[in-house]
């Protein structure tokens, strides 16, 4: 006998939520319609393995998708196929189905920051082929015109090539940052050098070893002996003297400083916040960027340095008023002490969260970052909110073609914790090997997901209690028992 499965769903895939069916990490696309055909022998004693064929709906092109029953969620020998239902998939998912079958399709989404290394159409296409689900534009860098061109290229990629790449806009936030380094791409600070950090505006060319700071109260807040961290500790300075609006610092840990890098300063082992804590979460520049994102119809807006749920609610109301037909999701970036203090209410108000470990590691002791990440992911799982793990996943691949084994272990742990997405920052924006970095994320994600499925097939499922009444609890127990029976049946069949 033979059975056929025609696959078709709406163009917007959705994740179920208690109060919303907003999609996550996918966007509208125009992919190819495929049909899957499962053929099994009518002879029950036949030793021939079932084969899954893929065809192009009557065009004559076909090929074997899989020849092993382990590739299905349910064995093809059971009557699970429908003759009238179909599902629409993008080009990458179609390739994964052909290669690995249904059970091995990657669940972990991949986010790539777009920068000078990946902004052209061909480079974006290479990332899409490699598994990029979301293109992130960082408003800390580049002009709105530049970002607009990137958005147009991503949309063209989806329309012409059948991909489903969403667009996420990341706001700059109101934290203390360095200036643009006079147009230079970077500046190297050597051990023992004296640098000046100033709130003054300098005529070009600016004095040597001088950096602008965007916070007017910077010189008033710091004291001699404070430790100044650039970009979460990539470069360190010691404050040695204050002269009016200028702060003289000696480099204690040399390194490369990049434009618009975040600045934090510590005193007696604690983060100095003071006036910095009074800065608004969304700056005037951020509001202009948000207007730009709404006009361009981005899929996600990630808000930096979120301090409370009120900020998220206000932004959602603003988006709804500015564009009533928009479906823009708001992602809260957890990267400050204030975020951790109000974590659950922030995540509840948001459409998703991002574990921004770079800036978070500049505000809490480094040894606390892993536990903070696990806690954020767990709360997102409990509240049924998508979560992205970001920052320095494969930092070494900015310069080198292979990652360190510690980085691979870090990526594996994020997938094992069941993060919904992983994000590349400098690796894809300005790195020398963006395609290879993405390939590492994809291969590690697929491997850990496979290991997870194999392990979970032999473990009892622990489901959170949702019901509030006695009747709801009975319904939960019935559903839990049915799920466990299904899992054990699947194990026996496989």
How would the blueprint of this fold be written?
Elements: E1 2-6, E2 35-39, E3 51-55, E4 62-66, H1 91-100, E5 109-113, H2 121-129, E6 134-138, H3 144-161, E7 166-170, E8 187-189, E9 194-198, E10 210-212, H4 218-221, E11 227-230, E12 235-243, E13 246-253, E14 255-257, E15 263-267, E16 270-271, H5 284-296, E17 300-303, H6 309-322, E18 329-334, H7 337-341, H8 343-349, E19 352-356, H9 357-363, H10 369-382, E20 387-390, H11 405-416, E21 421-424, H12 426-429, H13 434-456, H14 470-493
Parallel strand pairs: 5-6, 5-21, 6-7, 7-17, 9-10, 17-18, 18-19, 19-20, 20-21
Antiparallel strand pairs: 1-2, 2-3, 3-4, 8-14, 9-13, 11-12, 11-15, 12-13, 15-16
Helix pairs in contact: 6-8, 11-13
Write up what this structure looks like.
The chain is α/β, with parallel strands linked by helices. The chain has three domains: 2-98, no CATH class; 106-175 and 279-456, TIM Barrel; 181-277, M1 Pyruvate Kinase, Domain 3 (Beta Barrel), CATH 2.40.33.10. Helix content is 33%, strand content 20%. The chain contains 14 helices and 21 strands. It has helices at residues 91-100, 121-129, 144-161, 218-221, 284-296, 309-322, 337-341, 343-349, 357-363, 369-382, 405-416, 426-429, 434-456, 470-493, and strands at residues 2-6, 35-39, 51-55, 62-66, 109-113, 134-138, 166-170, 187-189, 194-198, 210-212, 227-230, 235-243, 246-253, 255-257, 263-267, 270-271, 300-303, 329-334, 352-356, 387-390, 421-424. The strands form four sheets. The protein has an eight-stranded parallel barrel, surrounded by seven helices. The chain has a seven-stranded mixed β-sheet with strand order 10-9-13-12-11-15-16, with no helix packed on it. It has a four-stranded antiparallel β-sheet with strand order 1-2-3-4. The protein is globular, with a radius of gyration of 25 Å. The protein starts with a strand and ends with a helix. Mean pLDDT is 79; it is low at 1-85. This is Pyruvate kinase. Keywords: ATP-binding, Glycolysis, Kinase, Magnesium, Metal-binding, Nucleotide-binding, Pyruvate, Transferase. Residues 106-437 form the Pyruvate kinase barrel domain. Residues 39-50 have a biased composition (Low complexity). Residues 38-85 are annotated as: Disordered.
